[in-house]
Design brief:
With about 200 residues, the chain is α/β, with parallel strands linked by helices. It contains nine helices and five strands; from the N terminus they run E-H-E-H-H-H-E-H-E-H-H-H-E-H. It has a five-stranded parallel beta sheet. It binds adenosine monophosphate.
């Protein structure tokens, strides 16, 4: 099963993708996680990406497309994957099409988590508070001001990705404003309708 999760930052993509991983046994390919790992490891990609990420901007298409192309070659991605945080631009969506085409693979579903953007800043403040309370590190880009920049980047560059898939009849919209379990149930029901196995 090959899936894409779309939706603005803070929509719950990471949370829901982790549940799909647990239920369906396919890896979650989060470009945000991969980039944060590269930053932590101090790799050349990490060094290039760090400042942009801290400021809430988008890392270059070239870098992100490169890491996804490498990642989907790994053995665990052979049985499928769920892309979380990618594609984030039209150029990335087109590059993904080419990568899959080259391998003779198709996407099974593109899920878009629809949320009320005016509620997202509150959500992100809560996410930071919960992480702090649990003694976990708080993401630098979960600062409310940086978060607003991330939301602007989403509306400027990423919001056009959903219509790209909708035009091809591949998009399923999910109401992401319900409690986490209800959103998971809606996703599972959508998957049982769209995924052939
Ligand atoms: P995320 O964890 O998905 O919210 O991503 C955190 C940050 O990583 C984003 O704000 C971007 O700076 C960068 N990033 C993650 N995925 C992408 C992508 N597909 N294209 C460009 N930048 C990305």
């Amino acid at each position: 099963m090959r899936l894409i999760f779309l939706g603005p930052p803070g929509a719950g993509k990471g949370t829901q993708a982790a549940r799909i991983v647990a239920k369906h046994g396919i890896p979650q390919l989060s470009t945000g996680d991969m980039l944060r790992a590269a930053v932590a490891a101090g790799t050349p990609v990490g060094q290039q990406a760090k400042a942009v990420m801290d400021a809430g901007g988008l890392v270059s298409d070239e870098i992100v497309i490169g890491i996804v192309a490498d990642r989907i070659e790994e053995p665990d991605a052979k049985k499928g994957f769920i892309l979380d945080g990618f594609p984030r631009t039209l150029a990335q969506a087109e590059a993904l099409d080419k990568m899959l085409e080259g391998k003779g693979l198709k996407l099974d579903a593109v899920l878009e988590l629809k949320v009320d953007q005016s509620k997202l800043v509150d959500r992100i403040v809560r996410r930071a508070e919960e992480a702090r309370a649990a003694g976990q590190p708080v993401r630098k880009d979960d600062d409310p001001e940086v978060f607003k920049t991330r939301l602007e980047a989403y509306n400027r560059d990423t919001a056009i990705v959903a219509p790209y898939y909708a035009k091809r009849g591949q998009l399923t919209e999910i109401d992401g404003m319900h409690p986490i379990d209800a959103v998971s149930a809606a996703i599972e029901s959508a998957l049982s309708e769209t995924v052939r196995g």
